[in-house]
Amino acid sequence: MAQVPNLDNALINLKSLRDQSQKELITILKNIRGKKCLVIDPKLGGSLSLIVQSSLLKEHGAELRHLNAEPIQTDCTKVVYLVRAQLDLMKFICSHIHNDISKGIQREYFVYFVPRRAVVCEKILEEEKIHHLLTIGEYPLYLIPLDEDVLSFELDVAYKEHLVDGDTTSLWHIAKAIHKLEFSFGLIPNVRAKGKASVRVADILNRMQSEEPVNTSEMGVPEINTIILLDREVDMITPMCSQLTYEGLLDEFLGISNGAVELDSSIMGVQQEGKKIKVPLNSSDKLFKEIRDQNFEVVVQVLRQKATSMKQDYTEMQTTNQTVSELKDFVKKLNSLPEMTRHINLGQHLTTFTSKPSFLARLDMEQTLVEAESYDICFEYIEEMIHKQEPLINVLRLLILFSITNSGLPKKNFDYLRRELLHSYGFEHIATLNNLEKSGLLKKQETKSNWITIKRALRLVVEDTDTANPNDISYVFSGYAPLSIRLVQHAIRSGWRPIEEILKLLPGPHSDIKRGGFSSSPSLDSLNGSLHNSDKVVDGRRSLVLVVFIGGVTSAEISALRFLSAQEGMAYDIIVATTKIVNGSTLTETFVEKLG
User: Fold this and answer.
1) What is the spatial distance between Cα 76 and Cα 63, in angstroms, rounded to a whole number?
2) With contact defined as beta carbons under 8 Å apart, do 138 and 110 qualify?
3) How far is CA 127 from each of CA 35, 245, 393, 573, rounded to the nearest angstrom?
4) Alpha carbon distance 536, 49 (integer Å)
5) Which residues contact 101 (CB under 8 A, 6 or more apart)?
């Protein structure tokens, strides 16, 4: 099964976006005649695999290499670097070229920045006296479709850059990507934002529209009716909790990267000693599409039922005479066997993690933290984790959850845990703790926590959640409804206004802007969850909401949005765009920095 996801059933024409990105890359290669060595920044490599098959790059005369400190080994006289604008990558390029010069090797060098060039990077190339040897260009890849309803800006450290370093470059990239979307699908008339970064992106988007307007008269009715921008900072509780959907758990334990997991072939029933295999996970896999958003408890039952039913069919085949059409049906079922085997193997592997007492104890503790009613129990649990030297990331995840739900820790406890962490894990982690403090994820308590008020007002803890037949988004965390998605739910149903007071208790400002000449286009304010005829696009499709997460979104939150979109009486389809798909560990890791 191809790594490049099938986008035929996407709600808007994402395939044309992907084709455009593919075409731009191929044009770059065509313009450099003959054989060339294409040296790709490793972080970009995964993203490109979702846009173009490597065989197509090779057809256009490209030899593929990953960029690292080692000199390039190639016979090609043309070397093309495809890189993000990052200083450490410039140093690699400089060392490669200096190495060639010292050996008397003559080559032509091209550097294409993704998505745009940066003065600070070019300055390094000038200081190293190689700028004049390079042809410099841009490959404007701002947005990558990960699946039929998910887009990624592939900005994995945007959240940390903005909160800790005060670097807002990524916000310009996000606005630029959305503005590019508008040139394809029309000016988005309603823009709602919550959080510092989101409000800033909404402002930049308006500025871009005044400087380089999307022609509203030519485009007709915009395909996307509303955009909801949400800072990760507004809800850092959700990503710190363990996801309990099938896709969420696969990411928590196996790490989904660019729509695939990589694991030992033995887990997938292939006997090849020590060999790793990549298992693609996207909606091209029909069974995965059916079970990805379900709570894992339910997935285990679904797979068991499917296996039992196939076994019965097989027995019947052997014991009775079948008609041709019955045989045809059976063969059709057999076609789904590889998918079923794949997910039974993955499910079985996941169970080895989810059945561990340590995982169940952790879930218990997360629930206690979210309910925010037993401070001492939580404090002692985290203290014990530190003394047992459990993985630092696991400790930090719970500590962030603890700090946010309590609006910080009393000074005495804060200083004590900080000291214990440094003693246990090494003083080089003082930089990590400083990053967490700077971003407000770990802090001393100065005011009384308002988490209990928020939790009650938005009904975030739901008793007796039915995971098998869910009637609320809380099924994705078995009883906790993600705060971020509750906010989206309100924004879609009735706008920010009814929850204004709650919004003020959450980090950052909020805004609500109407744009362009589309006053006739339905505003979300007029919606009460019921389907208005005016909300249907001309050809009978539902209106579309683009939900943008700045700082990352978890698979479980995407599942909750899909659940919302599928509800009866819901007048909108939802597409998600994010700086990166994250889980609590990958998000926490962006703040980890060792001194020296």
Assistant:
1) 8
2) no
3) 30, 51, 38, 51
4) 36
5) none
Picking from 30, 68, 25, the residue whose alpha carbon sits closest to that of residue 49 is 25
Q: Using CA atoms, how far apart are residues 568 and 297, in angstroms rounded to an integer?
A: 24
| Distances, alpha carbon 560 to alpha carbons 99, 234, 553, 566, in Å | 52, 17, 11, 10
Calculate the CA 90 to chain-centre distance.
Answer: 27
Cβ neighbours around 192 below 10 Å, total: 24
Alpha-carbon distances of 317 from 324, 340, 373, 467, rounded to whole Å: 12, 20, 58, 35
* pLDDT tens figures, 281-326: 999 899 999 999 999 999 989 888 887 877 776 676 666 676 766 6
Cis peptide before 509 (omega within 30 of 0): no
| Contact criterion met (CB below 8 Å) for 445 and 410 | yes
Model confidence band, residue 218 (pLDDT cutoffs 50, 70, 90): confident
- Beta carbons within 10 angstroms of residue 120's beta carbon: 10
List residues bridging with 138 in a β-sheet: 113
Angstrom distance (rounded) from CA 474 to CA 495: 21
Residue 230: name the closest of 579, 527, 473 by CA.
579
Tokens of 282: 């996207």
**Residue 208 CB contacts under 8 Å (≥ 6 apart), including other chains:** 175, 176, 179
CA distances 42 to 46, 47, 49, 258, 278, Å, are 7, 9, 11, 12, 17
pLDDT of 142 over the 80 cut: yes
Judge contact between 476 and 564, C-beta under 8 A. no
**Entry pTM:** 0.92
β-partners of residue 480 are: 461
Handedness of CA 399, 161, 227, 152 (dihedral sign): negative
Record the tokens describing residue 445, joined without a space.
């308590």
Question: Is residue 474 classed exposed, middle or buried when 0-12, 13-18 and 19+ CB atoms within 10 A define those classes?
Answer: buried
Q: How far apart are CA 581 and CA 587, in angstroms?
A: 9
Neighbouring-strand partners of residue 264? 276
What is the tens place of the pLDDT at every residue in 318-340? 666 767 666 666 666 666 677 88
Nearest CA among 122, 64, 62 for reference residue 94: 122
Structure tokens at 289: 């599409």
